[in-house]
Amino acid sequence: MIALSVNLNKIALIRNSRDTTNPDIPQHAKMCIDAGANGITVHPRPDQRHIRVRDCYDLAGMLDVEFNIEGNPTTDARVSGRDGVEDYPGFMALVKELRPTQCTLVPDGDGQLTSDHGFDLRRDGERIAPLVQELKSLGIRTSLFMDPDPEQIRLAAQIGTDRIELYTETYARACRYNEEVDSIFQQFVLAAEVALKEGLAINAGHDLDLNNLPRFATVPGLQEVSIGHALTVDAIRIGLASAVTAYQRALGNAL
To answer: In whole numbers, what is the pLDDT of the chain averaged over residues?
Structure first.
């Protein structure tokens, strides 16, 4: 069974468009879980433009499924400067206190609209390796956000991460425009085969949706997908519980 972790960032973005607690993040997490989600993912960025620090604490206190916190491990503390919004303590400080089930390290910068590339471990490996080991020493499963590049995946294994999360934008774009889908999909199959050979477990995420997910679910060794944007859009169309059910079916999971 491939686990479905629902990313709640877009739910939080809707809430943050008003001075309100609606939609309520823990409540929507529970709705996803009740509908069959296997985990909850959040990506608290330093500007707290969607998921905020308080959301992470609230979720950590109520979840009975896997909790995955994503982010750049090198981001430091920031003062929020906004009434009712807590200061950002720095990514590593946050996850070390909350001890989520999984921590997915992502090389995103402050100015990025969304995550748009995997780690270059030739450049950043020496800086990332001790952070991976620090998280693992706390019992937190670690995953690195990676492009489907066999050389980079081998480096990920060398620095000791438990998992990689394959960045699936190139596959999603190919499906969207029906261009070179087969060859690009095979890049992910090869990347997964390399990861398995290196002893890494495999997650995936970014722009996976009901149309492209069934094929991607056949990637060898895939254990978990994290989906937020498309699932939120589908929830507007068919309802949140129905959207979770539809994505589980797209993964081939019986409910």
So the answer is: 95
* 97: annotated active-site residue: no
Q: Cα–Cα distance between 20 and 132 in angstroms, integer?
A: 36
Per residue in 99-110, pLDDT (tens digit) is: 999 999 999 866
Active site includes 70?
yes
- Looking up residue 205, the CATH number of its domain turns out to be 3.20.20.70
Given 43, 50, 165, 224, which residue is catalytic? 43
Catalytic residue at 206?
A: yes
> Of the residues 28, 50, 165, 206, which is catalytic?
206
Catalytic residue among 28, 70, 165, 224: 70
Q: What is the mean pLDDT of residues 162-191?
A: 97
pLDDT score of 224 more than 60: yes
| φ/ψ (deg, to 5) at 162 | -80, -40
As a whole number of angstroms, the distance between CA 183 and CA 222 comes to 19
Residue 192 belongs to what domain range? Answer: 3-250
pLDDT of residue 80: 85
